[in-house]
Structures are given as structure tokens and as C-alpha cells.
Design goal:
The chain has a domain of 199 residues: MetI-like (MetI-like fold, Orthogonal Bundle), CATH 1.10.3720.10. Helix 7 packs across helix 8, helix 9 packs antiparallel against helix 10 and helix 10 packs antiparallel against helix 13. By secondary structure, the chain is an all-alpha fold. 76% of the residues lie in helices and 0% in strands.
Length: 326
């Protein structure tokens, strides 16, 4: 197992370096940080702009490979560079990573668990009333864009708050900045602000994953080894969980770990609608502001997440199916 994972890690590290390097070079060629100064009144002198951008390693007049060399040197020392608007990329990524982590970790994990349970249950109860209910519900949720689902929840929260006469459900922001209370009260306030965006992510994730899990489960329910296990006297529940579900989890695990890695920047609409300033918002803002360093930092972050997701997927699949270890 250790040698198997070590080989994978070396391959993934090489791919992360290549992907991040290509992303930096593409951003450096495509983005023009000087445009941030052209609309200012009065416009700063050209020499001042060049001096500022040179200090940030963002001057488009500097050859791309020279800027790339400086960026790699800073990266080796743990420095992601400066943002075009001022401040360090390290600090901004750290703050936003914490914000996205609070929101997405809970929502994604819960969505994955709920999706697996619903998909497996639907397969076992194929064509029963509960299967039809989950199928219809999943397709309805999948047909609604995530940002529309988030807005609908906000509208519902406003209606409920109006009906009860106070702010019973929080629907915007990470916390109430005007709240002055103890630790327990502050913790409760943050949980209140987590409810709606978490429910949005759970529903979207569970609806998507449950369809895959149901299909994978149906493929193995009629397999010879499941029937053999039942013929040897295993109880139906044991045969389903120990043999059928274990095999059926393999494709779902692959889908889940990769969606978990990319959702940190893929839940942009959810973050924007509910007022959470996370990694998705940083990606959009960095492109709009022609910030090469920030774009490269987000790309590096996503690449590392994909690396970790790949290792996790390899580990879990190897546990579920020992044949892949060789």
C-alpha cells in the first residue's frame, strides 16, 4: 500500500507543478495589470506604475519567463507574491480558505454521505414508492441551477422572518458584526449563518451523487458474488453492505473526492449570493483585476486539492478493491 501511494504521490506532484506553471504563464500573458492604473484620474506617471508593478513582479513589460523565474523562487520560499491592489496573496488566501472551509467542508461531506445513502437505498428499493420519490426529487433539484436554488432559499427565509416577526433565519453574511455576546452566542450566530448555504450545497451534492450511487448499486446487486454470498447463508443486509455496497462505492468515491477538491472554487455563486468571501470570489476578483499572482495562487491551491483528492481516492479504492494495489 505504501509503495503504491508513494508512486502516485510522485506522479501527482509532477502534474501539480506542470499545471500550476502553465496556469501562471497563461495568466501572465493574458492579463494586463497596468489597466488598473489607466482609468485613474489623474493617471500616475508611467515610471511610477512600472516601479510599482516591478516590485510586485506583475509588470507585463518584463519577459514572461523572467517573471515566472521570480515567481518560482518566491514559491519555493513559501511566498505567493503580492496582490495588485496591495497586500499579500498569502494573507488573502489564508483568510478566504478559512471562510470556504467552514462553508464547504460541512456541506460537501454531508451531501456526499446523504447522496450515497439515498442512492443505495433507492437501488435496494428499486421501483418502489420511495425510489420514485427520490428519483423525482433528485431530478427536480438537478434541473434547478445552484444559484437559483440559493435565491429561492433566501426568499423563503425572508418570508419566514416576516411571518414570525424577527430574524429567525439568517440568509446573508458569515456572522452578525453588531452582535456583542459571549463565545456560545457568537458560535450560535455563525451556525445560523451556515444553515442556508450548507443546505443548498447538501441538496445539490446529494442529488448529483445519489444518481451515480443508485446506478452503481444496481449494477452489482445481480452480480454472481452477491448471489453466492446469499446462497452461503449470509443475511440479506450483510450481503448488501459487505459485498454489494463495498464494490458500488468505488465510482462514487472517485466522483466525491474530485468534486470536494474543486468545489472550493466551484461554489462561487453560493458564496456570492450568501455573502461569503471565499476562494471562489477571490478567483473572480483576481481575474477582473488582472492579478496574475492571485490567479496563480488559486490555481496552485486547486491543484494541491486535486492532488490530495487523488491520493485519498487511491487509498480508499485500494481499501475497497485490493486488486488495484499491484
Amino acid at each position: 500500500m505504501a509503495k503504491f501511494l508513494l508512486r502516485r504521490l510522485v506522479n501527482y506532484l509532477i502534474l501539480v507543478f506542470i499545471a500550476t506553471s502553465l496556469a501562471y504563464i497563461l495568466a501572465a500573458v493574458s492579463l494586463n495589470p497596468k489597466s488598473n492604473y489607466e482609468a485613474r484620474t489623474p493617471k500616475p506617471p508611467e515610471s511610477v506604475i512600472n516601479q510599482k508593478l516591478d516590485a510586485q513582479n506583475l509588470n507585463p513589460d518584463t519577459p514572461v519567463l523572467v517573471r515566472y523565474g521570480h515567481w518560482v523562487d518566491d514559491l519555493v520560499h513559501g511566498n505567493l507574491g503580492e496582490e495588485v491592489q496591495g497586500g499579500t496573496v498569502n494573507s488573502d488566501v489564508g483568510d478566504r480558505l478559512w471562510v470556504s472551509g467552514q462553508l464547504l467542508l460541512i456541506g460537501t461531506v454531508l451531501g456526499g454521505l446523504v447522496g450515497v445513502i439515498i442512492g443505495a437505498w433507492s437501488a435496494v428499493r428499486q421501483y418502489k414508492l420511495i425510489d420514485h420519490f427520490f428519483t423525482v426529487t433528485s431530478f427536480v433539484i438537478l434541473s434547478i441551477p445552484t444559484f437559483v436554488l440559493a435565491i429561492l432559499f433566501q426568499i423563503l427565509a425572508v418570508k419566514i422572518n416576516h411571518w414570525v416577526g424577527h430574524q429567525a433565519i439568517q440568509y446573508s453574511g458569515q456572522f452578525n458584526p453588531k452582535l456583542n455576546g459571549g463565545t456560545l452566542e457568537m458560535f450560535g450566530d455563525r451556525l445560523d449563518h451556515l444553515i442556508l448555504p450548507t443546505v443548498t450545497l447538501v441538496l445539490a451534492g446529494a442529488a448529483f451523487l445519489s444518481r451515480y450511487q443508485r446506478s452503481a448499486m444496481l449494477d452489482v446487486l445481480g452480480a454472481d458474488y452477491v448471489r453466492t454470498a446469499r446462497a452461503k447463508g449470509l443475511r440479506r443486509r450483510t450481503a448488501l453492505t459487505k459485498h454489494a455496497l463495498r464494490t458500488a462505492l468505488i465510482p462514487s468515491v472517485t466522483i466525491f473526492v474530485y468534486s470536494f477538491a474543486t468545489i472550493f472554487v466551484g461554489a462561487t455563486f453560493t458564496e456570492l449570493i450568501f455573502g461569503w468571501h471565499g476562494m471562489g470570489e477571490l478567483l473572480i476578483q483576481s481575474i477582473q483585476s488582472n492579478d496574475t499572482n492571485a490567479v496563480a495562487a488559486v490555481t496552485l491551491f486547486v491543484a494541491i486539492l486535486v492532488l490530495l483528492a487523488s491520493l485519498l481516492q487511491d487509498f480508499v479504492v485500494a481499501l475497497l478493491d485490493p486488486r488495484v494495489r499491484g
